[in-house]
Amino acid sequence: MMVELETLSEQNALWIARAAVGDPDAQASLANAIIEAAETGSAAMAECVAMAELMGRMVAVHGRPGDKRILVQALLLASMYTAQIKNWDRTAAYEAEVIALLNELADEGDEEAGEMLQMAADVVPAELLTVAAKLRRRTPDDIGFVYQEG
Q: From CA 34, how far away is CA 97, in angstroms rounded?
């Protein structure tokens, strides 16, 4: 079942409750619905970015095939938004995390992630790739990434 964000129905409230208690299907459905709402302009971008990142991080913890890909989509959305508002440090942090996740996905055999990584390598500054490499060594407990120089 697809979650519709336009109205807060009983069904949406049920999905939100299920997501809050750790149901990965509910988390993935909400994340995808939020990302779609942001991409189509049917919801306010700032709110979508925050909610998509939260749901993306929650679902990625489960480690199912495709879960990291949802987080990549949420972080790309966040990166585009922070670039629009000219928050360059935050944009770089999101991009570094996306690259680290794409590396992980490529190592797991995701060919599309490998292709995306090749394209990124041609346009991403070397210092961002260094940050991504450091992120890649993070533990599963490092969920709230904060970008720091040095």
A: 20
| pLDDT computed for residue 15 by the predictor | 83
pLDDT digit string (tens) for 87-122?
999 998 898 888 889 888 988 888 888 888 878 777
State the DSSP H helix or E strand holding residue 6, giving kind and residue range, or none if neither.
none
Distance CA 85, CA 46 (A): 10
Predicted confidence at residue 129, as pLDDT, reads 66
Rounded to the nearest angstrom, the gap between the alpha carbon of residue 92 and the centroid of all alpha carbons in its chain is 14
In angstroms, the CA 75 to CA 98 distance is: 6
Report the alpha-carbon distance of residue 109 to residue 95 in Å, rounded.
Answer: 21
- What are the extents of the domains in the chain? 1-64, 87-139
Q: Encode pLDDT of 19-38 as tens digits.
A: 999 999 999 998 988 888 88
Which residues neighbour 56 within 8 Å (Cβ) at sequence distance 6 or greater? 31, 70, 71, 73, 74, 75
Q: How far is CA 150 from CA 77, 109, 127, 130, 147, in A?
A: 26, 32, 11, 11, 10
Q: What is the b/e burial string over 99-117, where b = at least 16 CB atoms within 10 angstroms of the residue's CB? A: bbbbbebbeeebeebeebb
Give yes or no for a contact between 31 and 50, defined as CB atoms under 8 angstroms apart.
Answer: no
